[in-house]
Amino acid sequence: MKARALAAFFALSSVAVPFALGALAARWWLARAPAHLAIDLAQPLVVVTAWGGYGGVCFAILALTIVCATIALLLAAGRLTSAALGARSELAIVVSVAALALACALFWPFVFSSDTYAYAAFGAMAQAGLDPYAPVPAAAHGAFVDAARWQWSGVFPVCVYGPVFVALARSAVRLTAQAGVGTTLWSLRGIAVLSFLASIALLGIALDAWPARRRLLALCAYGLNPVILWSVAEGHNDALVGLVLASAATLARCRGYVLAGLLLGLTPLLKGSGAVLAAGAALGTWLEHRPGWRLLVVGIAAGSVLAAGIALPPLRPALAALGSRGHYQPQLSLQGLVGIWPAIALAVLAAAYGVRRLWGSFPDGYAWLGIGLVAGLPNPYPWYALWIVPWAIAGGETLAAGCLWLATIFSVLRYLPDATGNMGTTALRVAAAVAVVPLALVLAGLGSFSTARKKAVVQP
């Protein structure tokens, strides 16, 4: 068994190799940056933003890394799922490989998202007694606020995150501010990494009763998804949402249905995407009549009401600012390709089909709900994969689940327009067409779903 586990570790470790090679290539390329990018390179955390053709190459390095890591994962997982390693061994291997891949991703000299700057600025504003949910006053200055301003060309967005996350960001600022902005940014990235690794461990516990093949596939689909790994390394707070979801799944596994539901309902106190997961869990458990579904739904309802009462009052200024100043600009999505209303119509149809499948006890209904979610997003950013992949996992070994998972890999394309800053309309439409390929694949295979097997006896 030890020899088999060691072989499995080395096989899955191939996922980390492209991240290591990509880091070396990125460092080599950054050393040849044009002189006009000197101010960008002087920032505490270098973010590739509107770098033209040079930024396009930076993106190409990341895209090639993601493609190679995805191929390595598919090949390794395909070889391993035929031989059970034991739940504990599988979990230890996936967590270890994820940690290795994240270490390689953290070695990259640049990222493609400025979100951690915003997190730090919101925490600093709260620490200084300013309202992070209101537009930043022009007279407000400070290391964190000024760093975030520079990243967003003068004005960074108002906070739309829950008060629990703001409190966490405030704590990070309070503990690390004296060491500089860069240290705080690294601390926020570290929180994301630790939260993600913990979520893998909890997911493994929650799925302990699943058949060996499906359990290992689920752990790999989540814990070793290359786009998720990159997003976590960038420091996105969606990793915290993943941790809450895995904690709720573990509580449900231990028959703590009310507590699990309450935790899901409270997730918007971190980020609003948690409400989508809570709604999906309530809908799915009700349609399938899973054990304890009534208690779970009661917990979700109670948590959602409590979260709304806590989060909505401070969020009102942010929502008002978004309504008056926000710009609805779909990119690299189905909305950007076919139009807003046609895309929403397709999203509703996909979700309705998912409800129908769940009503008929077919597990791919969850995947169809996830497909409807992706189809309706105006901007499917890569880090959304952290709360989209669970829909694919729940969808079982079906075409819909596979295509939904593949859609998270293709979401890396969303970095392209921001990295270059000079893409024309035609180029954007071509990139959007490529990005929605997984959705087209699932529609092409629609006829095969009528023969899909019903859910297994073992429930998560």
Estimated helix fraction: over 70%
- Estimate the global geometry from the Cα principal axes: globular
Secondary structure class reads mainly alpha
Number of helices: 23
N- to C-terminal distance = 26 Å
Q: Report the mean per-residue pLDDT as an integer.
A: 91
Sheet with the most strands? none
How much beta, percentage-wise?
A: under 5%
Total strands: 0
Multimeric state of these chains?
A: single chain
List segments where confidence is low: pLDDT < 50 over at least 5 consecutive residues: 449-460
Order of H and E elements:
HHHHHHHHHHHHHHHHHHHHHHH
Rg computed from alpha carbons, rounded to a whole number of angstroms = 21 Å
Topology diagram in text:
Elements: H1 2-12, H2 16-30, H3 38-41, H4 52-80, H5 87-106, H6 115-127, H7 143-151, H8 163-176, H9 181-206, H10 212-223, H11 226-234, H12 238-253, H13 257-266, H14 273-288, H15 293-325, H16 334-338, H17 340-359, H18 364-376, H19 385-394, H20 399-410, H21 415-420, H22 425-435, H23 437-444
Helix pairs in contact: 1-5, 2-4, 2-5, 5-9, 5-10, 5-11, 6-7, 6-8, 6-9, 8-9, 9-10, 9-12, 10-19, 12-13, 13-14, 13-15, 14-15, 17-18, 18-19, 18-20, 19-20, 20-23
